[in-house]
Amino acid sequence: MAFIRRAALIIGLVCCSQLKAGGSAEDIQSLRDLLQPITSLSAKFTQRITDTEGFQLDSSTGLFEVAQPAKLRWIVVEPLPQQIISDGSTLWVYDPDIEQVIIQPFNQDIAATPAILFSGDLDQLDNAYYVSEDSPGMFTLTPERAGSLFKHMQIEFVNRQPLSIALTDNLEQTTKITFTELQINPVISAYRFVFAIPPMVDVINNLQSRLDKNAN
Fold first, then answer.
1. Strands, E, within the chain: which ranges?
2. Which of 40, 58, 84, 140 has the highest count of CB atoms within 10 angstroms of its CB?
């Protein structure tokens, strides 16, 4: 459950409409120019979590797919299989090792993961972060929101393609996601962003719980 275990950091990329964009107009536009052409993305990933001294705390590998608007697949293959899938309105988290599926709304807090970088909603990105281009293709995004759970995020592009995303939290631990076998704008079937619940697994349906609560 590497992705969910780091949820406090990764889901901490919360975007707020009351925030003001930061950074020079040139740096913001430079990042927009790189992200705007991406409408879908498929890649293998390696995620490594390191401490302040560079010691590796955790690692995982798998497949990442995203398509506009707000559709994503984060498939961890090793060390513990896990699937995180969303069609843009519903999120499924499947852990085969404990035979459990969690279903919940794909709300704004969850939508504000690194996947939002490729969702096409660049205004949300501009409003939430101070953007600086440290070197050609290397951007640092610092949250404008007070009390954020991470200090900054770095995005690296090589040959105008995203190579890695690195997030550093307030404990100076860094989660770095590196992409390989990257495909930009592949045709990805909508069916891949809908999870088919296997038989004989526990289902925690937070989506239904919310509907029942609203009905009452």
1. 40-50, 56-67, 71-78, 82-86, 90-95, 100-105, 129-135, 138-143, 150-158, 161-169, 174-184, 202-205
2. 84
At residue 111, the pLDDT reads 45
> Whole-angstrom Cα distance, residue 114 to residue 39?
15
State the amino acid at position 129 in one-letter form: Y
Return the pLDDT at 9.
Answer: 37
User: Rounded to an integer, what distance in angstroms lies between the CA atom of residue 92 and that of residue 205?
Assistant: 9
The answer to whether 22 and 144 are in contact (CB under 8 A) is yes
Q: How far apart are CA 82 and CA 73, in angstroms?
A: 11
pLDDT digit string (tens) for 120-175? 667 767 777 889 999 999 999 888 766 666 788 899 999 999 999 999 988 889 99
Instruction: Tell me the pLDDT of the chain averaged across its residues.
Output: 81
CA nearest to 65, candidates 74, 56, 57:
74
Structural domains in the chain, sorted by start: 2-187 (2.50.20.10)
Report the predicted TM-score, pTM, of the whole model to 2 decimal places.
0.81
Tokens for 131?
């953007």
Q: Which two tokens stand for residue 9?
A: 């950091």
- Phi first, then psi: give them for residue 89, nearest 5 degrees: -125, -30
